[in-house]
Each structure stands twice: as C-alpha cells, then as structure tokens.
What does this fold into?
Amino acid sequence: MGCHFFACDWTGVPLKNHKFYLPFFRSGKWVKYGHYLNWQCAAAHAYYLSETSQISNLHDTLMQLNEVAGYEVQAAPHFSELSHFGGELSVCQFKKKSTYRADALTAVLINEQGDVQEVQLPAVDGSHVTSIHGALNDYRFDEIELTKKSKLGKDVHVMMLTNLQSTADINASSAIKGVGVNIAGRVLMTCCKGPRIAKNYSNLTMEDFKVLSGAVPPKKRPPALTKCGLPPDAPPQAMSKAEFNKIAAEMKRGMAEIDTSLEDVAAVPPKKRSRKATPPTKKPTAA
It folds into this structure.
C-alpha cells in the first residue's frame, strides 16, 4: 500500500525505480525521457523511435546515452522476444542477454608497488570479469564503493575492485589510503554511472583518477538533466537597494492607476433598466 511502481517503456517489465532513462533533445536542451530496465533498453527504444520517425537525431541521442552511461551502449533485443509478448525469453534471460558487453573497459590499475596506470580490459563472453581477474592476478575480487558523493558527478559510483581476502603484501600506494581496510595486492579503480549493477562497470580514465585523488580540480559540468526538462534552479542572487526601490516604485504606480480607474467607474451611476412588470401568478382555485 502506498508504493509507486514504474514500467519499462521498452519491455513493460515493472520497475522499482526509474533511474535509467533516454536522453531526449527537446526545446533546445537535453531532457530525461522514459523509464527503462537498463541503458540497453533505452538504446533499443531510441532505434525504434528513429525508425518510426518520432526522433530525427538518432546519432546524437546515442552519443548522449553513451556519455551518461559511461560506455558504448548496445541495443537490447526486441521486446517481442519476451515471453509475455509471445517470445521465448523470461525476464531474467532477457536481462542477461541485453547486458551483454562487447566493448573494452577503461580502468585504472594500481599494482603492489603503488604504480598507477590506465588499462584496457577486453570483454570476454559478454563480460569484463575474466579480464579483471587477469589484471588483478587473482581468482576473485570484491567491490568496494568508495563514496556516495563522487567528485565525478551525481549518480557516479566509484568502485575499487580487489581481493579483500588476499594474502599478498599490503599495497604501497598512498592513493588508496583512508579506505578503512588494509588493501593487499593489486587494485582496479572503476565506476558505475546510474544505478549500480553488479559486475557491470563504466569507463574510468586516468584523468578521472587524478580528479578523485585531488591531483587536478573537478571539471565544471553542465546542469543535470531533469524529468521536467529544466536544469536545476540557480542559487538566488541578492538584489541591490536601487533595484528594489525601482521595482517598488513601479508597483506603487501600477496600484495607483488601478485605484484611479476604480474611482472613475464608481463615479458614473449605473443606468436604470426599464422593464414591464410581470403579472402575478394566478393562484389555482379550489375545486
């Protein structure tokens, strides 16, 4: 009772939240459009909207989608493959098929000696997990989210991938101190843009890492997209005394003009309307 639910605009699947969206260019600005199961469903809907002539800037839309997702998004399968549309895939099977990754993941590797370098991790069988194992020289890894409020922007979850059960020597890097746990062995720094999906990561470059470590200041970012299509309100600006006096004088002058017009109307007596008297209704006579 009292809960709100959403449905994916591509699959019709019920959603707990509506954080996945399609960037849509309208009235000279990019706005959020729709609710989706993942970024891939948003891309599939973009192709459909283009094929049905509902949008004309498909290339720009997909480029903007890649920007907010943090990687090159591939379109999900057609919704007709789902069982509730007559297809053969369950929702879980559809989600697994739609999140198949073929792009190389950019991440930052910190080795045991504390050296930092940018690496490219190729996708293997639709995922980057195998390449992550290879980069860490370990058979397993844990996800550690460093902070809820990232310097890289809103809804960017900064992730540290490492094996917390590793028996290797403590990592010598000063860039990952203050995490609250001792980090042993290698570390991969990556991120997730939008809602967190386990073992599905967005690109994190060396430039991003420098911002996180404080080596360079964060870049000035454009206003965030909103559902209503308007950027967040700017902070209020103080008004000077001269500006206030000017506005107050204009308001007083306007009110004086209204008072004068009301007095002129009151001075003119209303015209009497002549009408014939209505004869009284005859009472019914008693039988």
